[in-house]
C-alpha cells in the first residue's frame, strides 16, 4: 500500500496552480482526487468492520439448526482463491511509464509553444505602428506584393481588383 500512496503525498493545490493547468485537465485531476478519496474512505470503513461471523447468535435466532450447521461447515471449508496479478501489475506499470513519457513530451511541447508565443508577443509589442511603415518596408516584408503589382502593371491593369468595392471611388476628388 505504501507504493500506491503517491496520491496522499501530492499537494493538489500546487499541482493545479504552479503547473499552470487549466480547463479539462484540472477538472480531470479533481475528479481523480475525489474518486481516490472515496475509495480510500470505503476501504477504511470496510477494514474497520468485524470479519468474524457469530454462528452462536444465528443458532439462538433461527429455529432450523441444520441450516446454521451447514453454513458454518461451508464457511470453515471456504478457502479464498488466489490469483497471480503480477502480469496485470506489470501492464499497469508499463502504462504508467508510457503515461509519464507522454506527459513529459506534452510538457516539452507546451513549453516550446509558450516560448514561441512569448517571442511573438514581444515582436507584436515592439513592432512599429502600421501607419509608420513605408511601402518599401512592406514590400521587403512580403515580396509577393511587388510581384503581384508588376504582374498587374504588365497586363495594363492599373486598378486592384475589389478596391473600389472595398474602399469606394475616390476619382471624384
What brief labels describe this structure?
rod-shaped; 9 helices; mainly alpha; 70% helix
How would you describe this protein?
The protein is mainly alpha-helical and 173 residues long. 70% of the residues lie in helices and 0% in strands. The protein has helices at 6-9, 12-18, 24-48, 55-61, 65-77, 86-126, 135-141, 143-154, 163-167. The longest helix is centred in the middle third of the chain and has 41 residues, at 86-126.
Set out the fold topology.
Elements: H1 6-9, H2 12-18, H3 24-48, H4 55-61, H5 65-77, H6 86-126, H7 135-141, H8 143-154, H9 163-167
Helix pairs in contact: 7-8
Q: N-to-C SSE series?
A: HHHHHHHHH
Radius of gyration, rounded?
A: 37 Å
- The total count of helices amounts to 9
Strand-residue fraction? Answer: under 5%
- Unreliably modeled segments: none
Helix content: 55-70%
Please outline the major beta sheet. none
* Structural class estimated from helices and strands: mainly alpha
First-last Cα distance: 86 Å
Number of beta-strand segments: 0
Shape: rod-shaped
| Overall pLDDT score | 83
Q: TL;DR?
A:
Helix content is 70%, strand content 0%.
